[in-house]
Write a structure and sequence with these properties.
Length: 120
C-alpha cells in the first residue's frame, strides 16, 4: 500500500455568484438557510455555501478512499464577511488525517470580488 499525501486528495471548486444565486425576497441582511440563496443585500446565505463545501469535502474523501464517502459531522464554521453578486469563490478541500473507516477533511473558502462586474 502506498502512502497518500494531502495534495493527492486536494479538490478545488469554483463558483461565481450571479443573479441565479440571488433574490431580494428573504430576510434583511442576515445569513440564513432559507430557500432563497441570498439576503436582501444580494449575499449568498449559508445553505448554498454549505452545499458547495459538502460536495468538495465528499469529492476529496472519495478521492482519498478510492470509494464512496458521506459527511457524518462538521466541527466549526466561521463567516468572516458576506459574499455578494460578482464574487468568485474558491472552495478547497483536502484530507488532513485518515483512520481505518473515517477521515478528517479541511474545507477552506476564499473569495475575490470582480473588478469590473458585467464585462468579459
Amino acid at each position: 500500500m502506498s502512502l497518500k499525501t494531502v495534495s493527492n486528495s486536494r479538490i478545488r471548486l469554483y463558483e461565481i455568484i450571479n443573479g441565479a444565486h440571488c433574490s431580494t425576497s428573504s430576510s434583511a441582511g442576515q445569513w440564513s438557510s432559507s430557500s432563497s440563496n441570498t439576503s436582501s443585500k444580494h449575499c449568498v446565505s449559508a445553505g448554498p455555501l454549505l452545499k458547495w463545501m459538502d460536495i468538495a469535502a465528499c469529492m476529496s474523501a472519495e478521492r482519498h478512499a478510492d470509494g464512496s464517502a458521506v459527511t457524518m459531522s462538521m466541527d466549526d464554521m466561521y463567516f468572516h464577511s458576506p459574499i455578494e453578486i460578482g464574487t468568485t469563490l474558491e472552495i478547497v478541500a483536502q484530507v488532513n488525517c485518515a483512520f481505518n473507516t473515517s477521515c478528517e477533511v479541511e474545507v477552506t473558502v476564499t473569495s475575490q470580488k470582480a473588478t469590473n462586474p458585467g464585462t468579459h
